[in-house]
């Protein structure tokens, strides 16, 4: 099992069960790995627990449920294209008859200086925009009242939580950018598509985030 997969699995189980035996799980899965790798995984988990304490102070309302590894596929506006992805975690809170949605993504990127944090935020901001767009579309289909969608990045390397903000204009730019990328692909003639296992006329209409 890859280290990243193990970490996400542990965090998912830990979020469900506070009595989850983390160290036993690490020993079972990483038995043959070096002590350095085990210590690194444990550090990520310890930082996760630290972040969770801070995260609790940011939550508003009564917690309704928490979903992990939530997959989605939603159409882009005014397009035949769809976006597909998997969200690490979605926490749902009820406040005054409406819902507060907290979208959370876990990252193990190495951080050595403050500039690294800013780079990571800018790198993952479009991803969170798509996540929010997808979940908002899901709620609209259910006709459920939405108060706010919050996006949080868990930086497990340093034990820090970061809130990701963006404007409606930013979101519209990203959605249009995705549509333009695929529009250019459809207009192009790629002679090497067969090397990718594509036979005949290929129709790409899913964008993965």
Unreliable residue runs: 192-204
SSE string: HHHEEEHEEHE
Give me the oligomer status. Answer: single chain
- Structurally, the number of domains stands at 2
Number of separate helices:
5
Shape: globular
Strand content: 25-35%
Provide the residue-averaged pLDDT: 83
Overview of this structure, please?
- This protein has 209 residues and is of the alpha/beta class.
- The chain folds into two domains: 57 residues, no CATH class; 146 residues, no CATH class.
- Helices cover 44% and strands 26% of the residues.
- It has five helices and six strands; from the N terminus they run αααβββαββαβ.
- Strands 1, 2, 3, 4, 5 and 6 form a six-stranded mixed sheet that branches.
- A hairpin with a 6-residue loop joins strand 1 and strand 2.
- Helix 2 runs antiparallel to helix 3.
- It starts with a helix and ends with a strand.
Concise synopsis of the structure shown:
By secondary structure, the protein is α/β, with parallel strands linked by helices. The chain has helices spanning 3-16, 22-29, 35-56, 114-142, 168-187, and strands at residues 62-75, 82-95, 98-107, 146-155, 160-163, 206-208.
Furnish the topology, listing elements before pairings.
Layout: H1 3-16, H2 22-29, H3 35-56, E1 62-75, E2 82-95, E3 98-107, H4 114-142, E4 146-155, E5 160-163, H5 168-187, E6 206-208
Parallel strand pairs: 2-6, 3-4
Antiparallel strand pairs: 1-2, 2-3, 4-5
Helix pairs in contact: 1-3, 2-3, 4-5
């Amino acid at each position: 099992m890859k280290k990243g997969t193990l970490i996400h699995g542990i965090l998912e189980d830990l979020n469900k069960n506070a009595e989850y035996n983390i160290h036993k799980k690490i020993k079972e899965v990483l038995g043959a790995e070096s002590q350095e790798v085990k210590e690194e995984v444990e550090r990520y988990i310890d930082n996760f627990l630290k972040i969770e304490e801070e995260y609790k102070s940011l939550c508003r309302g009564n917690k309704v449920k928490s979903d992990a590894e939530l997959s989605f596929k939603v159409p882009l506006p005014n397009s035949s294209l769809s976006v597909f992805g998997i969200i690490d975690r979605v926490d749902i809170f009820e406040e005054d008859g409406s819902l507060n949605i907290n979208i959370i993504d876990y990252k193990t990127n190495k951080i050595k200086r403050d500039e690294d944090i800013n780079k990571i935020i800018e790198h993952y901001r479009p991803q969170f925009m798509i996540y929010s767009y997808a979940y908002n579309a899901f709620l609209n289909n259910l006709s459920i009242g939405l108060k706010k969608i919050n996006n949080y990045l868990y930086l497990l390397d340093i034990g820090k939580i970061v809130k990701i903000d963006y404007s409606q204009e930013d979101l519209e730019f990203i959605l249009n950018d995705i549509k333009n990328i695929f529009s250019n692909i459809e207009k192009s003639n790629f002679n090497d598509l067969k090397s990718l296992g594509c036979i005949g006329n290929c129709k790409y209409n899913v964008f993965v985030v």
